[in-house]
């Protein structure tokens, strides 16, 4: 009973959960567990080292409902947090960003943009590894682009989640699509995670560069011109989008659709693309146009933000797995959970 209650407490990130147990106090490492007769309290502090037509598709909105979940107490694992911060505030939620795993055209070093190509074997492995790194963070809703590589990444990542809920894309294109994709079982709805697909989260549209490799592109347009298109904020390639244009649609969608979910306390995962995510990070971290063009996101590396008090607090780096990020927190949480399991048994 104690173990089951403990898992429930960690899974829903409640600060207190009632247990029937005798009073005791245990310490290991820099974490402590206090068990009291009418409940338990976990006090811990783990330190961390540390033309547009091809893009514009209709978005599919999930109708399945899911119970709102409190954010895992990852904020509390950071240095200098008091025990009072273990109590979750209503405005606190987790935001996970994942750039899709390696695609077939990433592997071939081709400009992909809005062309719909799947993941490579390596990309599948990256998506699964990303899922392991976020497996202890509650997810209430998932947003992806309309492109298969982002959707594959989200689905594969969630196969590793400890809650074993199933991400389900339902369709909202018309009345028939809504009716045919409706879930009638309330129990099944509780076991699923709503997935929203939106073309606004698609990769930047590279226009005439799409499908060309770097050498072909340099031969056709000139090396300096290609560098300008790739590394400028507001200069688009022929018949394509600039990063600024990509940011306009991606950030507007984030503000209108995703931010309200976070404000309501829901934990959200976004699986999307290098440029759409760079655009969102620019908004979250208040980066300048010069700073954002120098931001690189690794494929399959999760990035975590905590939305708290109307502000976004970054808890992971986009630079890669060697940086202090989501993996560090979830690995520590898994170790801590195992030690507590062993003790309670």
TrEMBL record:
<feature type="binding site">
    <location>
        <begin position="99"/>
        <end position="106"/>
    </location>
    <ligand>
        <name>substrate</name>
    </ligand>
</feature>
<dbReference type="InterPro" id="IPR001345">
    <property type="entry name" value="PG/BPGM_mutase_AS"/>
</dbReference>
<feature type="binding site">
    <location>
        <begin position="230"/>
        <end position="231"/>
    </location>
    <ligand>
        <name>substrate</name>
    </ligand>
</feature>
<feature type="binding site">
    <location>
        <position position="149"/>
    </location>
    <ligand>
        <name>substrate</name>
    </ligand>
</feature>
<feature type="binding site">
    <location>
        <begin position="112"/>
        <end position="113"/>
    </location>
    <ligand>
        <name>substrate</name>
    </ligand>
</feature>
<keyword id="KW-0324">Glycolysis</keyword>
<dbReference type="InterPro" id="IPR029033">
    <property type="entry name" value="His_PPase_superfam"/>
</dbReference>
<keyword id="KW-0413">Isomerase</keyword>
<dbReference type="GO" id="GO:0004619">
    <property type="term" value="F:phosphoglycerate mutase activity"/>
</dbReference>
<dbReference type="InterPro" id="IPR013078">
    <property type="entry name" value="His_Pase_superF_clade-1"/>
</dbReference>
<dbReference type="InterPro" id="IPR005952">
    <property type="entry name" value="Phosphogly_mut1"/>
</dbReference>
<feature type="site" description="Transition state stabilizer">
    <location>
        <position position="273"/>
    </location>
</feature>
<feature type="binding site">
    <location>
        <position position="214"/>
    </location>
    <ligand>
        <name>substrate</name>
    </ligand>
</feature>
<feature type="active site" description="Tele-phosphohistidine intermediate">
    <location>
        <position position="100"/>
    </location>
</feature>
<feature type="binding site">
    <location>
        <begin position="203"/>
        <end position="206"/>
    </location>
    <ligand>
        <name>substrate</name>
    </ligand>
</feature>
<comment type="similarity">
    <text>Belongs to the phosphoglycerate mutase family. BPG-dependent PGAM subfamily.</text>
</comment>
<dbReference type="GO" id="GO:0006096">
    <property type="term" value="P:glycolytic process"/>
</dbReference>
<dbReference type="Pfam" id="PF00300">
    <property type="entry name" value="His_Phos_1"/>
</dbReference>
<feature type="binding site">
    <location>
        <begin position="274"/>
        <end position="275"/>
    </location>
    <ligand>
        <name>substrate</name>
    </ligand>
</feature>
<protein>
    <recommendedName>
        <fullName>phosphoglycerate mutase (2,3-diphosphoglycerate-dependent)</fullName>
        <ecNumber>5.4.2.11</ecNumber>
    </recommendedName>
</protein>
<feature type="active site" description="Proton donor/acceptor">
    <location>
        <position position="203"/>
    </location>
</feature>
């Amino acid at each position: 009973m104690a173990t089951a209650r403990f898992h429930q407490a960690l899974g829903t990130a409640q600060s207190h959960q009632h247990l029937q147990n005798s009073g005791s106090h245990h310490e290991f490492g820099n974490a402590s567990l206090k068990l009291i007769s009418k409940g338990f309290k976990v006090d811990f502090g783990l330190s961390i080292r540390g033309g547009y037509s091809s893009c514009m598709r209709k978005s599919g909105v999930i109708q399945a409902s899911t119970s709102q979940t409190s954010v895992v107490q990852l904020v509390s694992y950071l240095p200098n947090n008091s025990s009072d911060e273990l109590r979750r505030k209503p405005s606190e939620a987790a935001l996970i960003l994942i750039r899709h795993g390696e695609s077939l055209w990433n592997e071939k070093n081709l400009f992909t943009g809005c062309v719909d190509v799947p993941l490579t074997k390596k990309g599948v492995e990256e998506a699964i590894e990303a899922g392991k790194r976020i497996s202890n963070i509650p997810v209430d809703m998932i947003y992806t682009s309309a492109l298969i590589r982002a959707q594959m990444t989200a689905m594969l990542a969630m196969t590793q989640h400890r809650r074993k809920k199933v991400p389900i894309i339902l369709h909202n294109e018309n009345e028939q699509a809504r009716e045919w994709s409706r879930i009638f079982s309330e129990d099944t709805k509780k076991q699923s995670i709503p997935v929203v697909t939106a073309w606004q989260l698609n990769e930047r549209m590279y226009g005439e560069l799409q499908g060309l490799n770097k050498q072909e592109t340099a031969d056709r347009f000139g090396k300096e011109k290609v560098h300008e298109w790739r590394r400028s904020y507001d200069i688009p390639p022929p018949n394509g989008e600039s990063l600024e244009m990509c940011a306009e649609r991606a950030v507007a969608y984030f503000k209108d659709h995703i931010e309200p979910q976070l404000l309501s306390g829901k934990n959200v995962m976004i699986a999307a693309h290098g440029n759409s995510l760079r655009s969102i990070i620019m908004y979250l971290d208040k980066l300048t146009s010069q700073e954002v063009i120098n931001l690189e996101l690794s494929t399959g590396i999760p990035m975590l933000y905590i939305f708290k008090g109307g502000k976004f607090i970054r808890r992971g780096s986009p630079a890669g797995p060697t940086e202090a990020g989501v993996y560090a927190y979830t690995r520590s949480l898994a170790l801590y959970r195992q030690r507590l399991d062993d003790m309670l048994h």
